Amino acid sequence: MRRKKVGLVERVRVSGPKGAFWINAKIDTGSERTSLDSRLTRKIGLGPVLGYVKIRSSHRDTSMKRPVMKIKLDIAGEKFTLNAGINDRSRLRYRAIIGKDVLTAGHFLIDPAKPKPKPIHKKPKP
Predict the structure, then answer these.
(1) Which residues contact 25 (CB under 8 A, 6 or more apart)?
(2) What would the pLDDT profile of 33-49 be if each residue is shown by its tens digit?
(3) Domains along the chain?
C-alpha cells in the first residue's frame, strides 16, 4: 500500500448541513485531535455539541475545556467523519489543525518539502 503524502499545510474541505468550505489547515503531529474554528462551524451549520474535552495548553501549565462536534473532512483525496475540538481561531493563521486522529486514520506520510497551497483569499482581487 502506498501512503499518501501531506505537507505541513494542506487544503482541506470541511462540510456541514449549510455548505462546505475549502480552507488551508496546519498539520500538527503534536495535537491528538483535529480542531476547527468556531466561526466556521456556525457558517456550515455544524452541531450539536457532543461533549467537551480537556485540552492542555502547550505554552502554559493550564488546561481548557473545548466543545466537540462531528465534522466531515476531505484531505488529500480521503474523506473522514470525526469528532473535532472547536475553538476560536480568529487570531491564528489557520482555521483548522489536522491532528493525529486524521493522520493515523489516513496513514498519511508528512513531507515537509511539499509546497504549501496558495492562500485562500476572502475577497476576490479587483
Answers:
(1) 9, 10, 11, 12, 75, 94, 95, 96, 97, 98
(2) 999 999 999 999 998 99
(3) 5-110 (2.40.70.10)
